[in-house]
């Protein structure tokens, strides 16, 4: 499998949109389509279902994405480390982020730290919600800014860097859009779109409860990636949650964002291996706390 085929497939699997994929890759949209079609012919099965309204992974496409992504990320990391070594860079730091809000803070911090440590090389990569702790454990990243809670014996985390109110994402014609206020009990009448089993159960329950306070079960539906969850909401297959600030990045005409103060805020903090943190990673942590926004008055500090 050629590298450009992997990049086209994995980017489309994340975006589920040919135009956005072509923009990210800097290719003509027709070139992306031709690459995917060629790959499908070689495999002998369709990887994506395409209609005029949406793009979705087939079961074969889901399996290929899940099998291919870790290997591709490992190759990218190896190339980045080799490039840094060839340049004579003293230190390499790989930092992950799991949301656009965290990305802005990470990029700002990386620029500031690079100015302070000219010999260092800092690489940034997105962490998928379907496997939030896999990259930090495998060494793909040295630290990451991610959603709490994180309660793992091998991982440490710092204080809250970002705190955001929670919103409920529903189809724009969902009955919830006509309610004066949606409660936790109302969730039993719909389906929550959540993510794959690599997410710890306590994290899943914190963000997407399995039952209401009265004990009524809340149906769940699994998505592989955030963009897939958005598409499922837009198709009316269920609802999901996001931080309030995320609306400016992910607003869609088929989706409504409703206030939902009945579950905790989204809080983001730095996470790193408990037994391994480099001096450059410590310097990054110090710098990111300098750049972090002022937290709301009632935000907790971890």
Overall radius of gyration: 20 Å
> Care to count the β-strands?
12
Overall outline: globular
Ranges where pLDDT stays below 50 over 5 or more residues in a row are 297-302
User: Total helix count?
Assistant: 10
State the end-to-end CA separation: 45 Å
Mean pLDDT: 87
| Helix content estimate | 25-40%
Class inferred from helices and paired strands: alpha/beta
Instruction: Tell me the series of helices and strands, N- to C-terminal.
Output: HHHEEHEHEHEEEEHEHEHEEH
Strands in their spatial order, largest beta sheet: 4-3-5-12-6
Proportion of residues in β-strands: 15-25%
Largest sheet: 5 strands, mixed
Would you write up a description of this structure?
- With about 300 residues, the chain is of the alpha/beta class.
- About 40% of the residues lie in helices and about 20% in strands.
- It is built from ten helices and twelve strands.
- The chain has a five-stranded mixed sheet with strand order 4-3-5-12-6. The chain has a three-stranded antiparallel sheet with strand order 10-7-11. The protein has a two-stranded antiparallel ribbon with strand order 1-2.
